[in-house]
Structure formats: structure tokens, C-alpha cells
Write a structure and sequence with these properties.
258 residues; mainly alpha; Leucine-rich Repeat Variant
């Protein structure tokens, strides 16, 4: 029992620190003896390659950890795969982790895949917009909208029925950052969202992308049921009135350039 616990601790330590297990002296050789230290130093100086024995052992252990009953151990295994210098070996295992029953493991795997994949991601990510975990859906949405690729607006329209207000708010914010064309109807709908924070994010993006069309909506927002949004709309309108016309035109030109 004690040996198993020690081995598990060693595994977790290695994965969190990126240390080679072979760099530790072998307990059977006396640990701190001169011979043990020398042997450990010699092994640790050997570079690990996909063909090396130590690399294969680690990869096999990672595969086993992906099936471990503990979500924490499975998450550590995903992080270990993300650090591999050979992405081609990590991708199949990370793809398997996307089917994990734990949402945090799936989210970690999706983040790792997004980081390692170099192909067209949008078709791959779209199916994870329907994942049961809001965190996974948000990761997929953020990558789709920030990936610099043309996004099908029908996808955004479908997300208007997204059950998580956090994801809807993120979508409203990202649409303003990414400067996508033709998103006016999506943002207008989001500005009517039941959640105050979503409405505010949508109005902010509308101001960024469509300043002229947004002034009337700001006036309506001053009668919004949310006190925070009413206060923000009032302050924003006051700033717009105080801003000289030339400054407004300059701001609009900058928005178009973005």
C-alpha cells in the first residue's frame, strides 16, 4: 500500500514538474550512495526520443493514467501529453480524452488539442459547441471566433438559445472583439437577453461595431430593468455627448480599420 502511494506521488510529481523519472536514484541501489547518484546522473543526461525506452515507458504510463478512476490523475495525464515535443503522438490520446465523463478533463483536452492542432479547426470545434459542459462550449466558441476564420452566422444564431448566460455573454463580447461583418442581428438579439450582463456586453459590442445604430438602443437601455445597465447606459451617453464631432469620426474610422 505504501509502495503504491509512493509510486503515485512520484508520478504526479514528475508530471507537474516535467522531471525525468530516470533522474532519480534507484531505491534498490542505496539511494544516496555515490554509485546510485552517478548512475542517476548518467541516465538523466541521455536525451529522450520517441524511440527511447524511458519515453515509451512514460507514454505507456500516460495511456494508463487516462483510464484512471481519478479525474485529477486523468487531467494530469492530459497536461503531460500537452508537453510532449511530438504532437503527432499526443493527438490520438487527447482525442480520446475528449470523450471523458468528467467535464474538466474534456475541457483540458480540448485546450491542449487547440494548442497542438495546426489544421482547419472550425469544423472540428463546432461539434463541441453542443457539449454538456458550459466550459467546453466556451472554449470551442472562443477559439472559433478568435481563430481568424470566417464563421457561419447561422452558428451564432443557434447559440442564442445557449442555456449558459456566461457563454452567451462571452459570445456577445467576442463578436465585438473579432470585428465580424453582418453580426448586427445577433447582437441586437443578445441586447434583449434575459440576463443583464449579457445585454450590457451586447450593447458594448454594438457601440464598437455600429456606433450610429447604437445610440437609440442606449436610450432604451436607460429604462432597462437592470440598475447597473441603466447607470452604464446613462454614463456612456453623457460621454458621447461630450465627445467632439471630430473625435467621434476619428473613433469610427479606427473601428472600421480594426
Amino acid at each position: 500500500m505504501e509502495s503504491s502511494r509512493r509510486d503515485r506521488f512520484r508520478l504526479i510529481y514528475l508530471k507537474s514538474e516535467g522531471v525525468s523519472e530516470k533522474s532519480f536514484p534507484d531505491d534498490s541501489n542505496g539511494g544516496s550512495g555515490a554509485g546510485g547518484s552517478k548512475e542517476g546522473a548518467v541516465v538523466s543526461s541521455c536525451p529522450e526520443t520517441p524511440e527511447s525506452f524511458s519515453f515509451q515507458v512514460k507514454l505507456r504510463q500516460t495511456e494508463l493514467d487516462l483510464k484512471d478512476p481519478s479525474p485529477t490523475v486523468r487531467s494530469l495525464a492530459v497536461r503531460s501529453l500537452e508537453r510532449l515535443e511530438q504532437p503527432a503522438l499526443a493527438l490520438p490520446l487527447l482525442s480520446q480524452a475528449l470523450s471523458d465523463q468528467d467535464p474538466d478533463v474534456r475541457a483540458q483536452a480540448l485546450l491542449a488539442l487547440v494548442k497542438l492542432k495546426s489544421t482547419d479547426e472550425t469544423p472540428f470545434l463546432k461539434k463541441y459547441l453542443k457539449d454538456s459542459s458550459p466550459r467546453v462550449r466556451m472554449i470551442a466558441l472562443r477559439r472559433i471566433l478568435q481563430g481568424g476564420q470566417q464563421v457561419d452566422l447561422n452558428t451564432c444564431l443557434q447559440l442564442l438559445s445557449e442555456e449558459s448566460p456566461t457563454v452567451r455573454r462571452k459570445m456577445a463580447t467576442l463578436l465585438g472583439w473579432t470585428q465580424m461583418e453582418g453580426v448586427l442581428p445577433v447582437l441586437v438579439e443578445l441586447s434583449k437577453d434575459p440576463e443583464e450582463k449579457v445585454r450590457k456586453a451586447a450593447l458594448f459590442s454594438l457601440l464598437t461595431l455600429y456606433p450610429e445604430e447604437s445610440e437609440e438602443r442606449l436610450l432604451k437601455a436607460m429604462r432597462d430593468p437592470g440598475p447597473g445597465l441603466r447607470k452604464w447606459a446613462k454614463k456612456t451617453l453623457e460621454k458621447m455627448i461630450e465627445t467632439p464631432v471630430l473625435d467621434k469620426e476619428s473613433m469610427r474610422a479606427k473601428n472600421k480599420e480594426r
